[in-house]
Amino acid sequence: MYNPTWVDQPSTIEQLFESLEEKFNNNTTITGFKQLVEIRKQDLTKCFPNLVNGNLAHLFEHPQVIEHIQQNSLYELTEDWHWLEKKAIKHFGNILACWAHYEKFSLLKDSQNSFPLLQRNNLPIDEYQYQSEIVDRIELDSRVFYTLHCPQALSLVNAIKLINIDLFIIEKKWYEMLFLIELSQQGSHFLLYHTNKIGQRIIVSSALIQHWHERSNWLSFDPFFCDNRWQTCFSTKLTPYLYNTGVFYKKILEVKNDLTFFHLIKDKESICEVLRLTTSGSTNFRFFILFLCQKNIMQELYTYGKKLACTIIEQPLMLNLYKSFEDVCYINKSSLNINNNKSATYKGFWLITTLHNNLQECDYKEYKNLIKRKNSWCQNDCFS
């Protein structure tokens, strides 16, 4: 059995990652997981063209792909890297999951400090014991925060990065985020946090807010989210609601489909894209936080001057809530079942003023009742 010279045998995962970190730093061909994954993806695209329409998890976790990787090294690279791929499959299921755990390991290793560890007590189910804010340029914020994902204190940028790695990449397997993980450490972000009795700020929800001048990074404009596989759910009867936001020119009332929306924007400062909305904690606690983060982010966006937000949503409970309101406060644009499973992804718009007004009149008890009454929404293919 082949064993690379750069890692002691046998080794723990932590020792493997430490050795790997050194190898990346001293290697000129492969300096990180990104290059290795990109080379392997090119190989898989040629060998399995029928799997390329799904996401990266669908591709790299397919049984045929796993067997192919285990049996075939990449001719461009040395045997060391094939050994790493097989090691990743053994311990993590695939190379992308290994990459995610490596990122988490490196972050926590580089974040050692002398701050006291988090005092883990049950967080309150009381919306008045949480604070929220939008932080512009989080990379300049010097405050220390805690998360529900590790006990140690972290800088704000590292706290958000850790939350995104744990919730989106490791838990939900949105491996595409690994290629844009730096967005978790810069720009504008929404924060929802609780401050405990000894002053420790514990983040329970966060979200990335990208303004119009950052639209080159918007998923709404990414080729994957714009191809013809997306099923249009937009109805022209909803264009007056878009016009009434004040974001668009009046010509939007003449639009027959959703393809020209972004060419008719009048007030570019009032539109944004909101992504990576996180909720941490147990299942029951996340249910509460999902309500509270939506209520608070609408308050913060409204105060900030935003009128319309582009969203990409996989959470049925969120759409369930919007449908329960009498006012039109969310407009669905299109949907796609990305991996041909039971879960659809929805692209749409938050009508911020209307959604803010409805949420401000809703407490947690009423929220739970609304969700129960609309529990059958997911039987529909589209939501509008």
Rg over CA atoms:
22 Å
> Architecture of the largest domain, CATH level 2?
3-Layer(aba) Sandwich
- Structural class of the helix and strand makeup? alpha+beta
**Could you say how many structural domains there are in total?**
2
Strand content: 5-15%
Shape: globular
Nearest-integer average pLDDT: 90
Q: Low-confidence segments, ≥5 residues, pLDDT <50?
A: 376-384
CATH homologous superfamily descriptor of the largest domain:
Gcn5-related N-acetyltransferase (GNAT)
Q: In total, how many beta strands?
A: 10
Task: Write down the secondary-structure element order.
Answer: HHHHHHEEEHEEEHEHEHEEHH
Biggest beta-sheet profile: 10 strands, mixed
CATH topology of the largest domain: Aminopeptidase
Counting DSSP H or I runs of 4 or more residues, the number of helices is 12
By CATH reckoning, the class of the largest domain would read Alpha Beta
Describe the structure.
This protein has helices spanning 13-26, 33-47, 56-60, 63-71, 79-92, 95-110, 156-171, 239-243, 283-304, 316-324, 352-360, 364-373; strands spanning 131-135, 144-147, 154-155, 188-195, 201-211, 231-232, 271-275, 308-313, 330-336, 345-351. It folds into 2 domains: 13-109, no CATH class; 127-379, Aminopeptidase. With 384 residues, the chain is of the alpha+beta class. Helix 9 packs across helix 11 and helix 10 crosses helix 12 (364-373). Strands 1, 2, 3, 4, 5, 6, 7, 8, 9 and 10 form a 10-stranded mixed β-sheet that branches. Belongs to the LuxM / VanM family. It catalyses: a fatty acyl-[ACP] + S-adenosyl-L-methionine = an N-acyl-L-homoserine lactone + S-methyl-5'-thioadenosine + holo-[ACP] + H(+). It comes from Celerinatantimonas yamalensis.
